[in-house]
Amino acid sequence: MPGRPLTASSSDPSSDPAAELTFEAVLAAAEIVRTELAPSPLQAHPLLDRALGRPVLVKHENVLPTGAFKVRGGVHLAARLTDAERAHGLVTCSTGNHAQSVAYGARLAGVRATVVMPASAPAAKRDAVRALGAEVVLVGASLGEAAEHARARAAQTGASFVCPTDPRIVLGHATAYLELFGQAADAGAELSALFVPVGSGTGAAGACLVRDVLAPDCRVVGVQSAAAPAGWRSWRSGAIETAPATTRAAGLATTTGYPRTQAVLRERLDEFVLVDDDAIDDAARLLATCAHTLAEGAGAASLAGALARRMDGLVAVVCTGANASADEIARLAGSVAAA
Fold this sequence. Notes:
By secondary structure, this protein is α/β, with parallel strands linked by helices. The chain folds into 2 domains: 23-69 and 167-338, Rossmann fold, CATH 3.40.50.1100; 71-161, Rossmann fold (3-Layer(aba) Sandwich), CATH 3.40.50. It has helices spanning 23-33, 46-52, 71-79, 83-88, 97-109, 123-131, 143-157, 167-186, 202-214, 230-237, 259-268, 277-290, 297-308, 326-338; strands spanning 42-44, 56-60, 90-93, 113-117, 135-138, 160-161, 191-197, 219-225, 271-275, 314-319. A 6-stranded mixed beta sheet has the order 1-2-10-7-8-9, sandwiched between helices. It is globular. It starts with 22 loop residues before the first helix and ends with a helix.
């Protein structure tokens, strides 16, 4: 409900890249997130098992409000806003799902929000952000250009810039994996691997934080589009790197590695694979036909990774979002018709 007050925090986020990212902090975030969001299901789909030739569980984050896991970050952020943030509002940048997350959280907390999006952001996601009450500003051809403008706009207006890897956002996202590993344990399912899509890396970092405590034998594998490999390059080199983002999957279209999440991933991520955009489209088709699930490109990427990196045992993938663009739906319809 718009304007409903949430618990506030007067402390500012730490400047130390990973200082606040602990399992205990994930547990605290979960207490907040569960007051607003019901757990998303972790499900088996026999037709999907048959298509992969081995068992797989799907974490359906696509059923959450805004249609994506990132709403968890917005809900947690709303409860942890500083007094200055409440007074002067928020500015962020995004290609879509983070934008909706911050807009959703701002509406919960009753604060102003401005979202800077690149011109390439899908129209449906721009409209969704506006519907949640945030102002949308279109700037630049890439997320990097939008981010530069968003930071400048925050400095000029006195609003607070919310980085997509703000610790409050990362901890909110991590609650998806607290649920996932808890659900698997409750079902007596022992996971050999978990595949997680990587854009800014918040989900993969959160998965590692939880896995290390609840399922240390499970491998966490990051998956990124080969057409937007900045995170993969940063993970491999140990330094923050940039790369062009030409992927069709808007949720993966990051042009740089992010220090906060890379600090976690370098130490804890087991593997990192690149998949091409056609493979992501193929995975989206499988989710539609075998798991009754519409997935955007980023939401299908973890399944594409599981198809590319065959592993023994039970694996889990995460459908992180269902906000497919018109072009994605058209490609999906075409591939289904041709199958």
